[in-house]
UniProtKB/TrEMBL annotation:
Residues 1-22 form the signal peptide. InterPro entries: DUF1091 (IPR010512). Keywords: Signal. This is MD-2-related lipid-recognition domain-containing protein. It comes from the Eukaryota. SMART domains: DM8 (SM00697). The lineage of its organism: Eukaryota, Metazoa, Ecdysozoa, Arthropoda, Hexapoda.
Length: 176
């Protein structure tokens, strides 16, 4: 009886460790620039170990604000299904957002770049270089499989018109 319990306990512990030791790998990234007169954005995946992301944004005009909307998707039944989507967040409110997905993306990007969180957003070059995502930093447990993080950016012009700027998709695989 005791032996069985110990066995169960061991199974639980080893199962737990198995999940923790799963690994998250960065697969690819795609950037769609929606208004190339307002700005140009590029993303690339570097073959470092682990892989990392370089993101460069060249803003050609000032904007009153830039709104970001974040989404997380899980690949189930042959397609990416949305798991979480945030509201549109003003770039100047990023540091004080209490949404776990927004906080996570903001903290990771701030580590390795000079993305601004000041409004108005001045024209210039902003970058995130060599961003790696470690599983231990992800704010939620991940089942194994394929994932996508999506960020949509919209500029707010001085006349308050909204200009869709880009859609960024980052693809991951979690394996256990
Ligand atoms: C980003 O924009 C696309 C196209 O409009 C839309 O299908 C998608 O749901 C948006 N994603 C987020 C996270 O807002
Ligand atoms: C961000 O850093 C890059 C590279 O050092 C620099 O060229 C650029 O001017 C900086 N951008 C801003 C807005 O400070």
């Amino acid at each position: 009886m005791l032996a069985v319990n110990v066995m169960n306990l061991l199974l639980i512990i080893t199962n737990g460790m198995f999940v923790v030791s799963g690994s998250l790998s960065l697969d690819s990234a795609e950037m769609r620039v929606l208004d190339s007169t307002f700005g140009n954005c590029e993303v690339k995946i570097l073959p470092t170990k682990p892989k990392s992301i370089d993101l460069d944004v060249h803003a050609f005009s000032d904007a009153k604000d830039v709104l970001l909307q974040f989404g997380a998707f899980s690949f189930i039944d042959g397609k990416y299904n949305e798991v979480i989507e945030t509201e549109k967040v003003s770039i100047c409110d990023l540091p004080k957002s209490d949404n776990p997905l927004v906080q996570f993306m903001y903290k990771e990007m701030k580590k390795v770049g000079n993305l601004t969180t000041a409004c108005p957003v001045l024209k210039g070059h902003y970058y995130v270089h060599g961003l790696t995502v470690y599983e231990s930093d992800v704010p939620m447990p991940l089942p194994s499989g394929k994932f996508k993080l999506e960020v949509n950016g919209t500029a707010i012009k001085d006349d308050n018109n909204a200009v869709p700027l880009f859609e960024l998709d980052i693809f991951f695989t979690e394996s256990v």
